[in-house]
Amino acid sequence: MPSIAFADAVNEQIGHEYAAHQQYLAIAVYYDEQTLPHMAQFFYKQALEERGHAMMMIQYLLDQDSGPIIPGIKPPKVAFVDIVEPVRLALDQEKTVTDQINAIAALARSENDFAGEQFIQWFIKEQVEEVSSMSDLLTVVQRLTDSPMQIEDHLAREMAASAGGAGDPSEPPQAGGASA
Asked: What's this model's pTM, rounded to 2 decimal places?
């Protein structure tokens, strides 16, 4: 059973993951309204991933008899000045989540919670990928701000190249058997 401090930190992170889910959903809707379907699809997928992360954390706490708590969250930002702003917001959010996950890992290590540390390692790896992906997308969107259809073409190629992946066998299970 994890320490109270570790369980509290994971419960807090569940809220951050649900907030990220809501923010990505709001970004996806913005891009749908802008008739940028690939950008929308990318962020709808990101929203599901963030929800999945929260569900993984819930399942871990359930498995550890640590009583997950589903916190309330603030409403997401829904108005943007241009097509770059949402991606910049998403990158900043991913960097913040990385710091939060690293703090949870440090807490697990400081408390000799080996199971907790092992669990959170998957999220560290995931955050490296998320920051890299969002950073690359921001670069593309900044370069092609005046050519949104080229952004769409880029994302269509990227999504086609990554389609059909087998998934990560080390991914923690989600509560209720849900999947992203």
From this structure: 0.91
